[in-house]
Hints:
The protein is built from 4 helices and 18 strands.
Amino acid sequence: MSLKELVGQTTILTVARKAEFGFFLTDGNEDVLLHKNEAHREIEEGEQIEVFLYVDSEGRPTASTVIPEIAVGRYAWVKVTDVKPDIGVFLNIGLQKDILLGKDDLPAHKSVWPKEGDMVFITLRVNRNYLLYAKLASDQVIQSISTKATRESFNKNVQGYIYRTAKVGSWIFTLEGFKGFIHESQRNQEPRLGEKVEGRVIDIKEDGTINVSLLARKQESQDVDAARIYEYLMSRNGAMPYTDKSMPEDIMERFGLSKAAFKRALGKLIKEGRVYQEGGWTYEKKDS
């Protein structure tokens, strides 16, 4: 087997000789360069060392003593380091050279592409020119590493990374190792591939997978909505032409809330004695 056929994998090679810019390693038939920037420990001629093989910018096999968590057929979570809208995103696997996850392997809508700092679960693939690229894990691979959830997880908060996106929803792999689905109705906006999100478990399936909601719990949501309404009221010097009798479309246009959510939040402010309604208007209730 030629060294090119081992690109994207680890192998044991012998240090044949030292050069000005690194070391030449050999398998007995071929030599490969271990550049001094990729030699992360003391190396002696004649010793056998484990290295990871990849191809340099000129198409030549090259070695590194850094052994990435991932290899061809081996998966790991890696961090996004850069986004190039024309070609894809670059990932740090521990080498001097970042690996490309090409745009053809990313969502059609760039709005849900990963951003710098996001995490994706990938393996490596090698093209016909022996160049290394990232490949996203399939649903089956995620299933194979997942842990089955039990009823004890119901209504618990979970955090995890989005590993697949679609119009109908998003798929999440949680820090506990649960494989989950977020229906489009259970999110205010579509999360990015690789984005870390927090939600709560709203269902546990027979196969141990979970359904997750990213929407705030009703009480938390009500608090946020009430704060938004009160902030708007105060920006108008304590008076606004909106009450629980206002038209749903007017409420949606001004506050981005359904009428039901608006009424709940406004009712909370009234109950707390912070506002009152009169003549089709809502007013700040000042201390007398």
